[in-house]
Amino acid sequence: MVGKKSGKALRDEGLERTDNNMDLSSWPQVQAINQKNYYTDYLKRDDQYLAFRLQNEEARTKMTKTAKDRDRALAMAKPEGAEGEAEADGDATMEDAEDTPIETAGSKVIVIHVGSQNLRIGLSSDALPKTVPMVIARKASKNESEDHPEPKPKRVKRDDGTAEEPENLFGEEWSSQFNRMSADLKVHMRQNKRRMLPNSKEMVVNFNRRTVPETISEHNDPMRVEWTELSKPPPEYIVGQPALRLPDSSNPRYKLYWPILNGCCNETDYKSKRELFLDISLILEDAIKTQLGLTSKKNWPQYSCVFVIPDLYEKSYVNQVLEMLMREFAFARVCFIQESLAATFGAGFTSACVVDIGAQKTSICCVEEGMCVENSRVNLKMGGRDVTETFIQMMLHDHFPYTDINLWRRYDFLLAEELKKNLCTMDEASVSPQVFDFHLRVAGQDTQKHTFKAFDEVHLAPMGFFEPTIFDNSDKLLGRRKLIERSVDIYDGQSNDPVSTAQSEILTALAPPLPKANGDSQPASSEVQATPARPQQPSALGRLQDQDQTPRSSVAGSPVPETNGTPQAGGANTPAAAPTTQPSHPAVESRDDILPVFPLDNAILTSIAHAARSDEKKMKDFIGGYYGRWRGHLDQWFLDERLRSLRPAFTKDIMIGVPPRDLDPQVVVWKGASIFGKLNATNDSWIGQLEYDRLGHRLMAYKCMWAY
Ligand SMILES: Nc1ncnc2c1ncn2[C@@H]1O[C@H](COP(=O)(O)OP(=O)(O)OP(=O)(O)O)[C@@H](O)[C@H]1O
């Protein structure tokens, strides 16, 4: 290029050749490629990806090995001197060789579903999993009830030294919401022609005020609890059920840790990420040894593992789990499956909207032909634990006789769970003043039998799923992002955790306003103890009802205004009515101060609206193939009625699926994952040791069925 320039041009640039006619540089000059003829197949063929190559190689090796094994089996089956006979009977010998059972399908696959409260674990060949509490007790100076401040209700003493009336324990706002819900229920029951005594509440309160406990000596109590006895020397930690059965007053003291909180890593109670994942691995290791009988870790490399992750998973969690399973447990292969997808496998649905209410989180997701619809994923931080807490709160408000109940204490937590499971109901017909009793069993003390009356509390506590402000949401964000940073893209530094437009829409509706731009920065997540804002008014519920009361268009039963027969946005903050391509508030996903707690029925419709994306037929399909996994919290018909009242237009289409063959809804996800673990021929998502050694967690991008 330089050589072609005129002498003047070179002189102008100060590059004029003054000496020996040689080029200024001996560096080879590269001509620019003519873009018209430019072609490359770089990264365009599968065999250029190590992950795919290894997979194909593995398949080829397997085929060769099977062929060799068969030949060997044939040769071994030939009795000496009976060559001719064997040849004549070749087919039968081959059949025999094939019939030789090598191992039951799935007997070498461990399936793990980790929850906030329970771990479900089993071999893929098992019919049902084993369930163990996802908890570890560690030696500590104080147990968890001593380590936490006295919970609500605080036994507040008034100035005159008398105890505060129970009605005032939880604040005016909470009491008025409880009373309003109670009044609404009365109206609803009357509308449904259910008889109700006008003074039921007073009867309950008066009974509870008067009742005194009865003492039963420990040896006369046939149902006494077998508390965990400490060995000598006391172990450093105890895992699972025995941990829950440790007496609170044990010597030395133990403190319970639940490494998963609200469906995410527990960043509140742990001091470091290392300790957190150490506890997860100890709990899993113990469960594999004690529940599956695989006591020798040396044999684990013969096993594969299917691990269930949330629909809206966090990448850093998945990467860390993958490392634990590959490095520490040394499993031969590992694969991941999302909860909702596993639920459809377990329940036998091809397309459905899956609603999964767990202990501390509720996830909703539409699944279509074996794939989660990404934009329909919703994750709410509420679950059965909130029902337990709220039920006890409501009972205390109505003068529950056992006033000292403290859910941080192990025996009280177990008692409250039991009461909730036995008494709470969504059936309005069961709402009447009734006498119940329970036994309070504390290690080393006589049993106390309490009698009490309950009325509408049994129904209103689970109703909290539809009015979640009644739940105590005050500390659910505590410690968020304290230990584990958001996963970010290595090139642009932006968060690359999965997002969904349905979730963004719900977050937008809940978002407290950002601080004013007067120099105040956004509060750090750990400082925020936000009580979730009520959904902005008019609520999604109200708008949906409004929509359905508007005149119908000619399209059967669908509300107007509409385009292509699908309801359109009623406003920026109208969940369930406005599937938008982009989140209406793009920043909401990155804000850690918004707590996703939202009425369940609206959240379901929001998810379906985002999955259907302006396609009314799809909307009907999802509403029709709706599958619930609410694990005893909600009655099928109750949710059915709620959805019908929100969307009268779809009344005929709403169909709530139940698990097949009376399968317990709590194990459907595990069951689905176990089926997935057996799909050897079609499952491309296995991650092997060799590829993990070379590519690490980057492999996930090739191995996930969803965009990772
Ligand atoms: N029969 C029942 N009636 C009411 N609630 C029940 C019943 N059986 C279990 N539960 C509740 O279900 C919850 C536990 O559900 P599950 O074991 O599926 O949660 P998890 O998977 O550990 O939690 P998450 O999904 O939030 O991570 C608890 O709150 C428990 O009280």
Automatic annotation (TrEMBL):
Pfam families: Actin. Residues 1-22, 76-95, 139-170, 512-589 are annotated as: Disordered. It comes from Penicillium chermesinum. Residues 82-95 have a biased composition (Acidic residues). InterPro entries: Actin, ATPase_NBD. SMART domains: ACTIN (SM00268). SUPFAM superfamilies: Actin-like ATPase domain. Residues 565-583 have a biased composition (Low complexity). Gene3D superfamilies: 3.30.420.40, Actin, Chain A, domain 4 (3.90.640.10). Residues 9-20, 141-161 have a biased composition (Basic and acidic residues). Coiled coil: none annotated. This is Actin-related protein 8. Residues 519-539, 547-564 have a biased composition (Polar residues). Belongs to the actin family.
